[in-house]
Specification:
- The protein has 353 residues and is an alpha/beta fold.
- It has one domain: Vaccinia Virus protein VP39 (Rossmann fold, 3-Layer(aba) Sandwich), CATH 3.40.50.150.
- Helices cover 49% and strands 14% of the residues.
- An 8-stranded mixed sheet has the order 1-4-3-2-5-6-8-7, sandwiched between helices.
- Helix 8 links the parallel strand 3 and strand 4.
- The protein binds S-adenosylmethionine (SAM).
């Protein structure tokens, strides 16, 4: 990965943002206590998500712990991209020199300037200004600063190294694929390559192709692939229309993309997987747990944070009938289950007969 050093201002601002997530724990605890006091529990909470939201949010709306969490969340959503971009601007000149050097290497990239960007994708996901392509260098800004320095750091267990936790989940997931002899692997929605690099670690002899809609993410993925010495074949494509030949792929895989897709798009991506997979080939997707695997309070909280955190498609993917969808497409040996200990990553697996 790219070696760089942030300036003090950028580093401190990103550290501050990363510290906001964990600091919410005590606010969430207070909300749970309030709901318990009000007699809201698994037995009394509504089944229907919208009715449950009214029930819970009605109870919490004047609670300082809820209002503070909302204020902090709102501030985080509105400012994380601005702060990360400003941290980037402070070191841009040094980085550009490194970027140029990392264009050379074994990883190839085919961009498609006439690609059709779908309407659902124009939503600023995570409320990040401009979404995945909001800045010429969004690949670096998102991959290295927002994902690694804010999200990754916030999720790192005490005593771990930054990015340790969030990235070891990717490795754990890739290692859980049933075989080790996939000749050709296609990853959909590779972003700047954090899961791609885990695929390379677990399957060092496989040919690895990876696509994404975002040019700026792919440009940064190429730098990461080159920095690590991998020969990834990156290309800009919609995961629904990869342009690959039928029956040409042994493993069709992705990590945390499903919850960012509307349900009809998920179905089209799965269909594309079925088309490009060889007979006996496997679809292996990792994502967040469906709401059916959570208690009612946790699924409300996930849904609430998704609604206000710029994840408009999360609810659809977390409530869709994935097993029926996979069966309808023709997959067999379907598995839809969480990994220990926290049901994360959640595995969607199927084999093409
Ligand atoms: C949350 S990121 C996942 C990135 C990566 N797999 C990881 O492990 O972090 C979702 C990625 O999916 C991409 N994406 C969304 N819709 C897509 C589509 N229809 N086809 C290809 N990529 C898509 C986005 O551009 C983004 O880079």
């Amino acid at each position: 990965m790219i070696d760089y050093k942030l300036k003090q201002h950028g580093r401190a601002s990103l550290d501050f943002l990363a510290s906001l997530g964990p600091s919410m724990a005590s606010l969430i605890k207070k909300q749970t206590e309030e709901l318990t006091k009000a007699g809201l529990n698994e037995a009394t909470l509504e089944e229907d998500l919208d009715k449950r939201a009214l029930q819970i949010e009605g109870k919490l709306k004047n609670l300082p712990a809820f209002r503070s969490q909302n204020l902090l969340g709102e501030w985080h959503s509105n400012n994380h991209a601005r702060i990360a971009t400003s941290a980037f601007n402070e070191i841009e000149n040094e980085l550009i020199v490194k970027f140029d050097k990392l264009q050379e290497g074994k990883t190839s990239l085919k961009l498609n300037p006439s690609i059709q960007i779908p309407k659902y994708y124009k939503y600023p996901i995570h409320r990040t200004t401009g979404g995945w392509d909001g800045h010429e260098h969004m690949g670096f800004i998102h991959g290295e600063l927002i994902h690694r320095k804010i999200v990754g750091k916030a999720l790192t267990p005490a005593g771990g190294t930054a990015y340790n936790d969030i990235n070891s989940d990717r490795l754990k997931f890739a290692s859980a694929a049933p075989r080790r002899d996939y000749k050709t692997i296609l990853e959909v929605g590779c972003s700047s390559g954090p899961y791609t690099s885990k695929l390379s670690e677990v399957f060092p002899s496989s040919r690895i192709l990876a696509c994404d809609l975002s040019a700026s993410q792919l440009v940064h993925a190429q730098r990461n692939g080159n920095a690590l010495g991998y020969a990834w074949e990156l290309f800009q494509a919609d995961g629904r229309f990869t342009g690959l030949e039928e029956n040409s792929v042994d493993l069709f895989t992705s990590y945390i993309i499903l919850h960012e897709l509307p349900v009809d798009i998920i179905s089209e991506v799965l269909n594309e997987g079925f088309r490009v997979l060889k007979s006996g080939g496997e679809l292996f997707f990792g994502d967040v747990a469906p709401f059916s695997a959570m208690d009612k309070l946790s699924s409300w909280r996930t849904d609430y944070l998704a609604r206000y955190g710029g994840e408009p498609y999360w609810r659809g993917s977390a409530t869709m009938d994935m097993i029926s969808e996979m069966k309808k497409i023709g997959f067999i040996d379907i598995k839809y289950k969480g990994m220990e200990p926290k049901n994360y990553p959640w595995i969607t697996f199927g084999r093409k007969p």
